[in-house]
Amino acid sequence: MSERSERISGRGLIRPIPDRDSAAWWARTARHEFVLQGCDACGTLRFPARVYCHACRSRDWSWRPVEPTGTIESWIVTHQPFTPGAATPYVVVMVRLTAAPDCVMYGNWYRDREPHPGEPVQASFTYVDEELSLINWRPGSE
Amino acid sequence: MTKRLLGFRDRAAVAGVGYTAFSKDSEVSTLTLACEAVLAALDDAGLEPGDVDGLATHRVGDSAPPSLVGPALGLRPPSWYLDQFGGGSVSHSVVGQAALAVASGVAETVVCYRAINARSEFRMGGTGRPLPASPEVQYQAPYGYVAPPQMYAMYARAHMTKYGTKAEHFGQLAVTQRANATKNPRALMRTPITLDDYLGSRWIAEPFRLLDCCLETDGACALVVTTAERARDLRRPPVLISAAAWGGGHSHLSSGSGDVTVTSAAELAPRLYGMAGAGPRDIDVAQIYDCFTYSVIVQLEDYGFCAKGEGGPYVAEGHTALGGRLPVNTHGGFLSEGYVHGINHIAEAVSQLRGDAGDRQTPGAEVALSTAQPGYVLAATSALILRKG
Ligand SMILES: [Zn+2]
To answer: Can you tell me the ipTM of this complex?
Structure first.
């Protein structure tokens, strides 16, 4: 399930700056848990992390392990180095989550071919260090 | 309901327009740019600095605020001011809020400005300065997804996939706007381009090429907003603010996301048209936010000029060219005139309604639409409908 990428270090990783809502999500991701927040009052799943349920305004929630899959909503191939040390070209995908179709996540795609629209994908965890792993995406058929 | 929608329709007007030169390096501060544009706008209106009792701008930490510009020009303490956080998405709300201030009597003469060194000092979107500490950036930046062209390219791809929008559609828009810019002495890019030039330009973030992207410009622009009544007594023909709308939308950045091929403009448009008592068929000329080619195509749909998904063919059929059904970005837009973050669209709309746009004039233009970044970045959007006074 986990893979280390050569490219991510070469790209000059910008570390995420977790906030008070998201720190626990990043900590779970570092442990390679694929979780979303679930509302304990109405069951709605949400991402990114925040305290209030947008459906019922409850503040009661818990982490829910969900299927780490989705479908390709869109993708880009970046050629212009927007960040220092970027090794171009590289692919960023936008993935609509199977467990929460209102939610999208981003990630890199490290295959030799580009993704297809609507293609089923699965999450993979890219280990950076003990405190940080990133969720990336690969074909669901692998 | 009707009364609420009427709002401040036609009660405020744009009475003056001022520009600095546009360039890649102004060699002066944003404070200097702001002062120069404000003075030029007052001169255009036939007003004195002493007449000003309000200042308004928007910024992303990249420019001089009203609290510096007012004292720098020796203006009296303002009755009202606005220092709005935000980029292109709020550009038109600044003028809308000035109109609201003037219509309510809180202020009488407000100068709205935007002054940027967006090429030489502060480039947009994570290039050359620290990323903003937005709660959503953390889910994107680690993947090298940081800049507006990447975000718009992502949505453009989704539109291409869903509706068959083609590179040639984007290209035709770029070619058309460049043709407009050849008739605009102020435009930075005045050499005509062809579809082959477009297709041959280098990739920035596929599906976007260099010629999908707007310029990065140093410059400033200012607009004098006063009551319709007062504007009629001033030097230039008044241009009435028939409708202004802002707000709305939800973030597509990382969170709750429906159809990503629809922008916040679709939510805003009914409110805007309702306040103006007009619809898409009444618009004679439109300045539509063109940070990227795709942003025009999606807004043509979301503001109701064509059916959803048909923005690309609408452009390719020539409807947005000068002399077409709906001339769009008659000055060349941000793609070819220059990028002052929205306000130069409003200034061009005013010029078209005054009838002083020279070779690029839309004959008989009486009603114009001008729009802001449609909300793919930072969710909100804003827009104005202006009318010949
Ligand atoms: Zn709930």
So the answer is: 0.94
